[in-house]
Amino acid sequence: MNKETANNIRQDLTADCSKCFGLCCTALNIIASSDFPINKPAATPCMNLQSDYSCQIHSQLREKGFKGCTVYDCLGAGQIVSQVTFNGQSWRDNPETGEKMFQVFPIMEQIHEMIAYAAEAMSYDISNDLSDELGQKLKELQDLTKLGADELLSLDLVIYRFSLNELLTVASDSIRENIIAKLIGANKVKDFDHARADWIGKKLKDKDLRATDFRGAYLIAADMRNADLRAVNFIGADLRDADISGADLSTSMFLTQMQINSAKGDVKTKLPSYIQLPSHWSN
User: Fold this and answer.
1) Contact 122, 96 (CB under 8 A)
2) Every domain range in the chain assigned CATH 2.160.20.80
3) pLDDT tens figures, 91-117
4) What's the pTM?
5) How far is Cα 6 from Cα 11, in angstroms, rounded to an integer?
6) Which Gene3D superfamilies match (predicted)?
7) How many Cα atoms are found within 13 Å in the side-chain-facing hemisphere of 137?
8) Could you tell me if 89 and 148 are in contact, meaning their C-beta atoms sit under 8 angstroms apart?
9) By the number of CB atoms within 10 A of the CB, which of 133, 196, 263, 277 ranks highest?
């Protein structure tokens, strides 16, 4: 698989709510918080879900306290479960399949997330051997999306995630090491490893953070305005309310739409091509 094909796979992992049976509005458990004004048990339709599976307050979600809905993104898992796994049979028309559909949905979400990471890694300049290994993992994950509901429910995703994470780490380190070598020579930059760091609320405005490893880091409410975040590894990082207005994340690695949706930014924020500018960001 070449880089262009891998990039296209990553680009195509977007939600199409018109082909989904409102699974995120039904399958997931919601707890009243700053992100939601209500409690809603899993497998229970949200009070705002209409008969055609659209949301009756979609244009007013934030104003009505449903901030979490504007952050959420399933990477296209919803329409696959609805149209492929269950062949277009909705939980409303076939109540007996509902429980199983709601259980399969979060599994498909995880598979799509892993597909996104694998495809993205293959779109970078990495060794042929590493690309081949990632390609094999990507094919395995794509095949999982075609399984029936019972087969999906029996999967042990930890096995797939663990082996993929090893390859993603190698890919990230390889890319970052090349950039770090140049930065050390030019700017005497010494510390690039902040994996799982607690940088909640940290002041990072205008900082050059290129090639930093923020894997699993807590960056909640961090001030990263106008920061240079190119080639940064953001896999698993918590970016809730982090201010990335004007920041350059154009070549940041392993970002998801949900991470960006949870952050604060503006039209000057530079994002990877597969990430959409959140509609709730300021102009």
Assistant:
1) no
2) 191-283
3) 999 888 999 999 999 999 999 999 999
4) 0.94
5) 9
6) E3 ubiquitin-protein ligase SopA (2.160.20.80)
7) 29
8) no
9) 263
